[in-house]
Description:
The structure is a homodimer of 219-residue chains.
Chain A: E1 5-8, H1 13-25, E2 30-33, H2 46-51, E3 59-61, E4 67-69, H3 71-81, H4 92-108, H5 115-123, H6 129-153, H7 168-182, H8 191-200, H9 204-207
Parallel strand pairs in A: 1-2
Antiparallel strand pairs in A: 1-3, 3-4
Helix pairs in contact in A: 1-3, 1-7, 4-6, 4-7, 7-8
Amino acid sequence: MSGFTLHGYFRSSASFRVRIALNLKGVAYDQAPVHLVRDGGEQLQAAFRALNPDALVPALTCDDGSVLTQSLAIIEYLEERYPTPALLPGLAADRAFVRAAALQIACEIHPLDNLRVLKYLKQELGASEAQKDAWYSHWIHLGFASLEARLASDSRVGSFVFGDAPTLADICLVPQVWNARRFAIPLSDYPTIVRIADHAMQHDAFAAADPARQPDAST
Amino acid sequence: MSGFTLHGYFRSSASFRVRIALNLKGVAYDQAPVHLVRDGGEQLQAAFRALNPDALVPALTCDDGSVLTQSLAIIEYLEERYPTPALLPGLAADRAFVRAAALQIACEIHPLDNLRVLKYLKQELGASEAQKDAWYSHWIHLGFASLEARLASDSRVGSFVFGDAPTLADICLVPQVWNARRFAIPLSDYPTIVRIADHAMQHDAFAAADPARQPDAST
Lengths: 219, 219
């Protein structure tokens, strides 16, 4: 027992983010998979709701028994408890740049392409498969276009979003690119985003967090 | 000239958040209103895109000429530059609690009820007014129900979300409640949320950030 248990799902972007952060910090953790599809979604059942009333993954059970939720709050917590290696730069203005890139994904793209949103589109609004795919693709393209514009023009960008070491921004970027590829979204208009994501996946901490390598991975 | 200029819109929740934070920190700022509806949306025009390629408000122009985006990144920046009064508690676990409550609104509710999302529902998916209203209401109720469960059961909650002083969580909560009321969403199932939001609005920093009191306010 490491003291930390991640309640997540292999394909969940937000779980993927927390796995990367834990790996970067070198913090050992157990995994308690929550299957988002099987049996109508294990996250909606009483056992998981007792842990997290939001019925969302990930949740992180800590060594002191507390339960943390919301991936970005969990990662900021890890950053404060385990400052090295830093996942945010030293200067406030640079930290704001990194956090803004992370939030641009976490607030502007990911919430719209969440499983429960896609379900609502189909079940409540009667959207067709094609309309659901167009919706998914629309928010990825809108978000990636502006993020690409930002990254392509900012001198702070290096092999990672900020310089040559991974930060919170890469932690959010990589799962979003992984997701876009899963749905076969063409990414040729976003060369900076793709270059950074591919470079990051060569890093052990990112590679070990790959959905395909998790204990609950399936097709 | 204060050195800070907030490019926002009176009714935008994310702009409202940043106004509250600036007021709480006692940081003077000018306002440069960006009308989100007039002329098809000033945020979509070249002048604003040059400032923020995301075409989203708010953006904060700083005293050093840099442009910050994403409301939560801006508020964390203000917190780092002007630590007093603190908008986050001292302990990492408590900071995670406050950030999670903030993100539950900023990631799970607000992005789905954004202007551009409601537009997409109508224009691309042919949603009726009633379907659009049901969508809006659905994400408010889903998010508020779990947030209420969390706040009603956590001993850290006081007259504000964390104890008896405002934090980042209240800064996100108040605009979301304001928005829900604007659309006449019944809030009787969320007594803790309503109690905190009403208490916060008695605080000068929150009251001065009220959309109705901004220079660009209109009906």
